[in-house]
Request: fold
Amino acid sequence: METAIKSCSTSACAFNHNGCTAFAVTIGGSDAKPTCRTFIELDARGGLSSANGKVGACQRLECTHNKDLMCTASSIEVGGSQADCLAYQAK
Reply:
């Protein structure tokens, strides 16, 4: 199962060009702050030519959508200045 990145409103990310253009992102973070670890703040834009980003791995074992380090949500949204995973739900 592939989990699509439905939207990303983190405008400072170099992979956000009218949506997530990273091939795949990793969701991680610390404590109760699940974030996109692929987030990179640069003036340049990069990644795929279209916004078709997906979740490649999830390091948040306590998330209800995590099974075997993979995201099982049908899609996620990323937002905030630090690229928060807005689909995160603690068990």
